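Running co-folding for magnesium ion.
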Amino acid sequence: PLPVLAVVGRPNVGKSTLVNRIIGRREAVVEDKPGVTRDRVTYEANWNGRRFKIVDTGGWEQDVLGIDASVAAQAEFAIEAADAVVFVVDATVGATDTDEAVVKLLRRAGKPVVLAANKVDGPSAEADAAALWNLGLGEPFPVSSLHGRGTGDLLDAILDVL
Ligand code: GDP
Ligand code: MG
């Protein structure tokens, strides 16, 4: 079976944009189960000749659970099923309490994590990315999922741990 990469993070940080960027906007759903996994969508991806599955999360944003519990629940399910995780943070916003809660989950899960500091659209936002060292997850990779900036380096780091 192909290794599985989960993409987790708060609503609107750019998870789906990053997934689309990584899969080259091929909307090829390879798994779309009903029930608890209804909002986790799995795609097949390929980087430098290595194939893997990538799981987008985030369909429960309107959930009655409230935002923190919803993000945490989705992250927990996705992390459990994954071999490695990309944790996406909006670098222009910085780390929020919800982000910190996800960091705790990630620590507990003990799976390899790559930190994507998203919305770094230009050099002036690099400092925002560097501030995310404070999350304690290692090097933040500055990316612009929207424009493609930095996503190659991010993918190299992902493939190193996947
Ligand atoms: P998700 O809820 O985490 O899946 O976030 P989306 O992928 O739906 O993106 C939320 C919003 O952020 C959308 O308006 C995107 O266009 C925007 N966005 C995503 N990535 C970037 C980025 O790298 N730079 C900028 N400026 N906007 C982005
Ligand atoms: Mg999304």
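Result summary
Strands lie at 4-8, 29-31, 41-47, 50-56, 84-90, 113-118, 140-142.
Residues 28-38 have pLDDT under 50 and may be disordered.
Job closed.
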